[in-house]
Amino acid sequence: MTTALPIPTPTPGLIASLNAHTALNPNAQGRTYASLLLTHPAPQFEDVDRAKVERLMLGVAEALGAVPAVLPAGTGRAPSFSVDRVSIAPSGETLVHFNGTPWQMRVARSPSWSRVMAGIGQVLLVVGLDELSPVASAAEIDEYIESAGEAGRLYATVSSVADRRP
Predict the structure, then answer these.
(1) Who contacts 158 (Cβ-Cβ below 8 Å, separation ≥6)?
(2) Are 80 and 66 in contact (CB under 8 A)?
């Protein structure tokens, strides 16, 4: 009999290593929404322990309140809603906050993305359970989202955006 390993709370090292891919996308009604895809970085030279990466990323998803994502024509649940998982620091930096840990992730500066996201007041947070290169192109990110979504390996939540962390 095997015992399932517990889902770990994100550590400072994991949080610091996460890839953050920002995007502004139109929805079906033509309105813009901001999204943030978080993935585990693909190693350059060593093999990947896929089971370990999945457990770590499930911990990230759980700490954000994310649920299995629904893609068009797919099964699953609509994204949950998380309150203030994202904030704008007084310095203007975008921060992602995780339940169960005092550590936060700084999202690389993208003034236009941050401005639109803050103006909308919400952001779609997506967590991929598989690794992705930190230097992935837009086409590679789209392919990742499509294949991971079809395989049920994306988790999502919609977060409100706070002016600063309460």
Answers:
(1) 79, 80, 81, 82, 122, 123, 124, 125
(2) yes
